[in-house]
């Protein structure tokens, strides 16, 4: 018989909080329990100061559930998103951290704990899907690495994780001697993706508390080592899931990717607004598929109109980091797991991405906003 949430709650009664405290289910700290087939996921709410003390409770809960018949894997994480003790029978994503009205939420740095050894965490986001957010995130990461920086990529795009494909990586990451997961690596960049943790056929399992569990695990239980920058590929859009995720991640700032079309710009504006509302600095806008350069004659065509993102950035008072042309080489190399910035470092597109990466790094390090990357001229 398939296991039920009630069975799991019963079994978890054996787990007690430290110092002879209540049983885990009675403590009101359990999130909703999500069951899909033989996989189970839930989170345990803690106060940030309890992280160390509660680590053994998390481990015991996981072992307890994995020992149950009908369970092949349990994903249990500690979350400090809501006050410990508050009853949690609703998915985390259904409880946006946004407060009612127009009040601003506290800065993410006050909420999300820093990741040890990681200097800057940068979200790459877009107001809507399909604008080339992941391709841009991947190539910016490689551009940063080309500048000699230590770079990691965390793929938090729950709707369609694409970093495994973009970096040409597959397989399951393994745990190291310290029990932390060792990220996979290619082209000198460490990569961790929801795509490594979930079967392709069951992407919808990463909903509600599972999303938060996976993000928490990828942030806290992965051995990232020392990084100058961690790039986080966010899910496209500006809904509550994105907002919650942004707030749970200790972001230094965000980069918004947009195409020149009006619609996308409207969406990009929403993206900017989402980060501004949460007091996460917008480090810049990248215009993707800005121009088409004829591979035969070099003629530059502005298929979708041009300059929209630059003007919009100006209006919004956020930096414009640069523009990436629409080009088959970018599509083909990305889709084949051979990103252009790593494979053709002397080519024009690698130059563009390195320029964007350089401007981003400067903004990060200065804490100020440089207006844009140097213009790249195609001759
Ligand atoms: N500058 C570009 N020139 C040509 N093709 C591009 C460019 N940027 C992205 N693409 C292609 O567009 C497609 C969508 O890109 P990508 O997956 O990066 O978008 P996304 O915004 O992350 O999408 P999703 O919403 O699915 O997460 C891919 O096939 C990619 O190779």
From TrEMBL:
One of its GO terms (molecular function) is ATP binding. Pfam families: FeS_assembly_P, ParA. Its cofactor is [4Fe-4S] cluster. Keywords: 4Fe-4S, ATP-binding, Hydrolase, Iron, Iron-sulfur, Metal-binding, Nucleotide-binding, Transit peptide. ATP binds at residues 127-134. Residues 6-75 form the MIP18 family-like domain. InterPro entries: FSCA_dom_sf, MIP18-like, Mrp-like_CS, Mrp/NBP35_ATP-bd, NUBPL-like, P-loop_NTPase, YlxH/NBP35. Residues 82-111 are annotated as: Disordered. It comes from the Bacteria. GO terms for biological process: iron-sulfur cluster assembly; mitochondrial respiratory chain complex I assembly. In the C-terminal section; belongs to the Mrp/NBP35 ATP-binding proteins family. Belongs to the Mrp/NBP35 ATP-binding proteins family. Homodimer. Binds and transfers iron-sulfur (Fe-S) clusters to target apoproteins. Can hydrolyze ATP. PANTHER family: IRON-SULFUR PROTEIN NUBPL. This is Iron-sulfur cluster carrier protein.
